[in-house]
Design brief:
about 250 residues, alpha+beta, D-amino Acid Aminotransferase, Chain A, domain 1, D-amino Acid Aminotransferase, Chain A, domain 2, nine-stranded mixed beta sheet, four-stranded antiparallel beta sheet, 7 helices, 13 strands, about 25% helix
C-alpha cells in the first residue's frame, strides 16, 4: 500500500543511469542531483545516505556488463495528499540498453501543452505526463523526437533529453530558469566545454533561433550526445557535435 503514493501521486524521483563495463557513469552527478531534489521536495533521507551507499544499492543488482539502471526513490508514508511520513524507499530496476545512436533524423515541436518554469520543473520526478504526450505526438508524426515549449513559448528540452544548438561554434542551451530538467549529461557537457575554453551560453531558445542554427544536439544519460539531422526546413551539420561527443566520452 505504501507504493501507492508513487503510483497515485507521482510522489517520486528517479535517475536513469548508464553502467558501462561495470562502471556507473557519472555516479557522483546522479547522486548529487538526487540528493538535492530529495531535499527540495521534503524527503527524509536515510542516516547512512552517501555516494557510497547510493552506488552499493545499484551494484547489488548487477554483476558484469553494460546496463541501464532506473533508480527510483519514493515517499514511503501512507496518507492521501498529505503524507503521514517523509521517509523514503529506494527501488532499483536493471533494464536492457536501447540501441545506441549518434544522430537522429527529424524533430518536431510539441505545442499542445506547455511546461511551467519553476524549481519543480528541473526535477526528474514522477510528474511526466508532458513527456509521454510529447513522445506520442512525435510518433504520430513519424518524427524521431518532439521538443517541449515552456510557458513563454520557448524551447526548454526534448521529450527525454536536454537540447543544445551551435551557431558559429558558440554552444547555446536553455537555462534552468526556462524549465528544463537539470540533466546530468547536460551538466557534464557544459563543464567539459568550458574546460576546453569553448563558449557556452545559457539563454532562452526560440523556434526561430533553432531554425537558424548550424547544429543541434540532444543529451541524456543513456544515449549521450546525439546529433539532430533536421528541423522543419533546416538541415544541421554534425561536425562540431561529433567533436563534442569525442571530447566527453574519450577514455
Amino acid at each position: 500500500m505504501n507504493i501507492n503514493r508513487a503510483f497515485i501521486y507521482g510522489d517520486l524521483l528517479f535517475e536513469t543511469i548508464y553502467v558501462k563495463n561495470n562502471v556507473i557513469r557519472f555516479a557522483e552527478q546522479h547522486f548529487n542531483r538526487l540528493t538535492t531534489s530529495a531535499r527540495i521536495i521534503g524527503f527524509d533521507l536515510p542516516a547512512n545516505w552517501s555516494l557510497t551507499n547510493f552506488t552499493e544499492l545499484i551494484r547489488e543488482h548487477f554483476t558484469t556488463g553494460d546496463h541501464r539502471i532506473r533508480f527510483v526513490m519514493h515517499r514511503n508514508g501512507t496518507g492521501f495528499y498529505y503524507p503521514q511520513s517523509n521517509h523514503v524507499k529506494c527501488v532499483v530496476d536493471v533494464l536492457p540498453l536501447p540501441a545506441a545512436h549518434q544522430q537522429i533524423g527529424r524533430i518536431e515541436v510539441y505545442d499542445q501543452q506547455y511546461k511551467s518554469c519553476c524549481s519543480l520543473s528541473n526535477l526528474k520526478s514522477g510528474n511526466a505526463l508532458i513527456y509521454v504526450l510529447a513522445s506520442v505526438f512525435a510518433q504520430q508524426r513519424s518524427a524521431d523526437d518532439a521538443l517541449i515549449l515552456n510557458q513563454y513559448g520557448n524551447i526548454c528540452e526534448a521529450s527525454s533529453s536536454n537540447i543544445f544548438v551551435v551557431k558559429n561554434k558558440v554552444v547555446y542551451t536553455p537555462p534552468l530558469a526556462e524549465g528544463p530538467v537539470a540533466g546530468v549529461t547536460r551538466e557534464v557537457v557544459m563543464s567539459k566545454l568550458k574546460q576546453q575554453n569553448i563558449l557556452v551560453e545559457e539563454t532562452p531558445l526560440s523556434v526561430e533561433q533553432l531554425l537558424s542554427a548550424d547544429e543541434c544536439f540532444l543529451t541524456n544519460s543513456i544515449q549521450g550526445v546525439v546529433g539532430v539531422d533536421r528541423f522543419r526546413s533546416t538541415s544541421f551539420s554534425h561536425h562540431f557535435t561529433d567533436e563534442i561527443r569525442q571530447m566527453i566520452y574519450a577514455q
